[in-house]
Amino acid sequence: xxxxxxxxxxxxxxxxxxxxxxxxxxxxxxxxxxxxxxxxxxxxxxxxxxxxxxxxxxxxxxxxxxxxxxxxxxxxxxxxxxxxxxxxxxxxxxxxxxxxxxxxxxxxxxxxxxxxxxxxxxxxxxxxxxxxxxxxxxxxxxxxxxxxxxxxxxxxxxxxxxxxxxxxxxxxxxxxxxxxxxxxxxxxxxxxxxxxxxxxxxxxxxxxxxxxxxxxxxxxxxxxxxxxxxxxxxxxxxxxxxxxxxxxxxxxxxxxxxxxxxxxxxxxxxxxxxxxxxxxxxxxxxxxxxxxxxxxxxxxxxxxxxxxxxxxxxxxxxxxxxxxxxxxxxxxxxxxxxxxxxxxxxxxxxxxxxxxxxxxxxxxxxxxxxxxxxxxxxxxxxxxxxxxxxxxxxxxxxxxxxxxxxxxxxxxxxxxxxxxxxxxxxxxxxxxxxxxxxxxxxxxxxxxxxxxxxxxxxxxxxxxxxxxxxxxxxxxxxxxxxxxxxxxxxxxxxxxxxxxxxxxxxxxxxxxxxxxxxxxxxxxxxxxxxxxxxxxxxxxxxxxxxxxxxxxxxxxxxxxxxxxxxxxxxxxxxxxxxxxxxxxxxxxxxxxxxxxxxxxxxxxxxxxxxxxxxxxxxxxxxxxxxxxxxxxxxxxxxxxxxxxxxxxxxxxxxxxxxxxxxxxxxxxxxxxxxxxxxxxxxxxxxxxxxxxxxxxxxxxxxxxxxxxxxxxxxxxxxxxxxxxxxxxxxxxxxxxxxxxxxxxxxxxxxxxxxxxxxxxxxxxxxxxxxxxxxxxxxxxxxxxxxxxxxxxxxxxxxxxxxxxxxxxxxxxxxxxxxxxxxxxxxxxxxxxxxxxxxxxxxxxxxxxxxxxxxxxxxxxxxxxxxxxxxxxxxxxxxxxxxxxxxxxxxxxxxxxxxxxxxxxxxxxxxxxxxxxxxxxxxxxxxxxxxxxxxxxxxxxxxxxxxxxxxxxxxxxxxxxxxxxxxxxxxxxxxxxxxxxxxxxxxxxxxxxxxxxxxxxxxxxxxxxxxxxxxx
Length: 1015
What we know:
Layout: H1 4-11, E1 20-21, H2 43-47, E2 50-52, E3 56-63, E4 70-75, E5 81-85, E6 100-108, E7 115-125, E8 131-133, E9 139-144, E10 147-152, E11 162-168, E12 180-184, E13 190-194, E14 199-203, E15 209-213, E16 216-220, E17 227-233, E18 240-242, E19 248-251, E20 258-260, E21 266-267, E22 293-299, E23 311-316, E24 321-330, E25 333-345, E26 352-357, E27 363-367, E28 391-397, H3 419-424, H4 431-444, H5 456-472, H6 487-506, H7 525-538, H8 544-553, H9 559-575, H10 586-592, H11 598-609, H12 618-628, H13 634-643, H14 647-659, H15 666-679, H16 686-695, H17 708-719, H18 724-737, H19 739-751, H20 757-769, H21 773-782, H22 788-798, H23 802-813, H24 825-833, H25 839-847, H26 853-870, H27 875-885, E29 891-892, E30 895-896, H28 910-919, E31 930-936, E32 941-950, E33 953-957, E34 963-967, E35 971-980, H29 986-989, H30 992-1003
């Protein structure tokens, strides 16, 4: 029963007072802070802060105290809304009982949208996010930390009295990136998102196990029998939508957030590789306001004006708005065209985390009303994170004259409705209604009388109902063929056939389709997409030729058709290894890179040796050949690459050998060593020779020795006016093969006042990283006179070995190196890994007379803030500095790396926060981006960000964003640090005047506002 307080709060909701319904103004001149600068508002006052297009109204459905903080929403077959909520978030209770709740809202007032009935269905949940009421409406699937549970109301009192765990093993290290957005499709699968920075290992009742790390999508059977990975990659997908073709979409956590899910595709993420076919492109090409995007809906109903049909609406929890993108088609590829924001709010507490299309055609919005939304930028334990407030809003069309009729639910209770009445809903204008009716008929397994000549959309949903009955009763898929020639029907028929054949494989008595592959000569793009996905799933040899033909005719702008066909062709060649052609074909060569098999490696080797492969494909081909072809092709491969002087491909070949956990065979090693030395005599080929010599692994049977001519050539290179990178490369090569000669030669260059600074620094770092005591002593002697930024780099290198650590301590003690080197957190982490007895006491003794590091950083921040306020930073010059110092890891727009967070829109943080981010990156480091201290079996220590495991190799990124590969067998210790992988000495690396230019550029990175709505 509702309390007087709750009734009073509902009354204060101002349901008779519409939200401002005016032409979209320019958004207020307030940055979308991650921490709202204002106090919370009542639901009634918050509602007044919304701006929507003319003719729309925002209505309060429910709020605190009747509900808690809503996470995700879902409607059931009775028209009720199920809402997951969490008080515990962001920390699951460790020892206390979980008390998060699942609510059911019903009896909605058609005029005001208010839910007149709120029930608590379950109250023992632990940060529940994903929710799916099943077609019987008595049970639901819901997430609870680490699990997917099924709750059932067996006595009909509206409360769950039975629960079971369907799946367990989901990761929850990062609670803002857990599994979510359960979507039941007529093929009998529930599709879902797997969020950022969590590792999951989950199996179904059939024993099939999947593993997911960070962003992915997956699907599972609602009875708990099986799970499967659907797509790989993405950053943090949260929110799923479906279109009339039954394509699925997710909202991802970056500024171009809408992703259509191509089965088996890989999408770009932090530090993850693709499968050899490249990353599948996103639907959006234009940047949105922020990267905090979640909740997604495809509008396909008749309540809103017709211009909103095929518009995708997306919640932006950072910018406090709902964005809009109109979808246009390039063949089978959806392209998002930017539209004005659909809803904006001046209340910075408004956090639209989920959006659903209701059975009435209105939009329903879960508002995780909160002062703080930043998960990494603001301490998770900050007491200002709100625990109690949450709202659900309904957005309706009232017409520009305010007289449009209130939206009505298309059904009241499908569970008791006659099948014939449900059948009529299969052609309803509202996609959400059609899907609910389709799933209800499938769940009931009744043979409802169908409409003889319904619309295409009716026939589509009827086709799926008929297909499901065919699955259930072991009948052929031909029972569910389309009744007319239609692009929409043809594509759905193919997808239904795939679902039918999957069922047939799962069930021994199931009958698979006997129909031959579809005729594709005059098929439209959507049908070709569906056919490609079907052929790729069946993966038969006879599908190869038609798929090659599809690729040959695929328009350049239909990128998703091309990707789907490539995935399908990959599957067919993978499952039919004898189907490779004899001669070169660019299509086969392209797909071969995604097939980890000996036959694919053999095909690529032949084409590479015959010089058929384009130069830009050689590195990928070389890595594939050595990884999957084994030792069989190494000698001939590297001989061919040496002839072509392709160092990139040779080094890629080394990576492939490493990844399979092997050593390069002696014959190939010696041949490469000989050819690389010969290259030193020719200025045109010296660069590749140096790179190969420096990367060449040692031969197991002996030591590689440079010829006297090679040593002389390298010494000459070091001392001449060769390019800087050549001179440094020569120093590194000499140190590797003839350290005694190298130290003397390098010492001479350091003493030469004309030696360029990049060469001097490169040589010092090479000396510091060497195992040679003489080399380390030269680096030590230089510490007193080099710029501090260089001293830090030398100190890091010395601290990477036990011997170097001793040298570093002695040098600081003797006053020949700055004491504050021993306050650098990156150096301290390496000293900690050295296991040197008493290292911490030595640090304390040697730094007791200098100011603490935090005090020094605070002074630098203050000075730089004052200096920037007085300066006139040049953003154009700052863009160049970003490219030089930051773009290896960070991305803005389409440029840069994706190792660390994307920086689109970072300018909204303001100068003070950006100064902290750049100059003191270790202040607040999220677990996902903490560097790790890795000690190898030869007692070397590096500090790096782990990107991924690649076969028998751990791939990491050093502070400069360069990938390094460490064989797993060579790792003695791998521990997490509290450090950012970002260098902490930018104040020393970038001159002060240039630093202000970089800051000016970053401050300019504010999201472009969407176009204004035409009046």
